[in-house]
Design brief:
single chain; 3-stranded parallel beta sheet; globular
């Protein structure tokens, strides 16, 4: 979600906002990465930047891969603690958006435990908590025609092809899959990206 190579690049959108002119934004996201991967590269990709502010949005791949909740919580805590120990940065943890737009899908029931861990970790470590899942859920709650969660390589590949080859907007790609906030049930449409950008910008200002 965060790397921005597939779906809306919300970090790039932050760079383009006039109120942040003169600030440098570093996107340390990696497609397919988990909390363990981020923990292993926190010094190289975050601490080495000597950041003033750090937003963390990590865990979607942990949920999809079935990483035990205790292991996820330990990794997230280690990352936040390391940033606090080695920099003066203020840290914000974003809750994970739904996986797909069917809020009652089994995987979204699983997701709730990870989001509870994020909020608890923010409180315990002194990080800020940004309610991204709550923003997405509010937007999706009243939809009656939500397609079932169905992420896969083919869906993602076709979404990328329609955007990069056919020049469709990410919103057009999402609509073609019966979605609103995601292009392939995981990566962001333009509307989805705007929610993340707005929440992050609000915190940064």
């Amino acid at each position: 979600m965060t790397q921005g190579a597939l779906g809306r690049d919300w970090v790039g959108d932050l760079r383009g906002r006039p109120e942040f002119r003169g600030y440098a934004f570093v996107n340390a996201g990696r497609n397919g990465d988990t909390s363990a991967g981020l923990r292993g590269r926190v010094d190289r990709d975050i601490v080495a930047c000597a950041p003033d502010r750090v937003t963390l949005l990590v865990g979607t791949n942990d949920v999809r891969s079935g990483v035990p909740l205790a292991e996820y919580r330990d990794n997230l805590t280690a990352v936040v603690d390391r940033v606090h120990e080695t920099t003066s940065a203020r840290v914000a943890l974003m809750s994970l958006p739904p996986l797909g737009e069917d809020l009652d899908a089994p995987i979204n029931h699983t997701l709730r435990g990870y989001n509870a861990a994020i909020e608890e970790t923010a409180t315990r470590t002194g990080a800020d908590y940004l309610p991204l899942n709550e923003r997405f859920t509010d937007r999706l709650r009243d939809r009656d025609d939500r397609p079932a969660y169905d992420f896969g390589f083919t869906t993602a590949y076709l979404a990328a092809a329609r955007h990069h080859l056919l020049r469709q907007s990410w919103d057009d790609v999402a609509r073609g899959n019966g979605l609103e906030l995601f292009v392939d049930h995981i990566h962001l449409s333009d509307r989805g990206g705007a929610i993340v950008t707005g929440l992050a910008a609000q915190w940064l200002t």
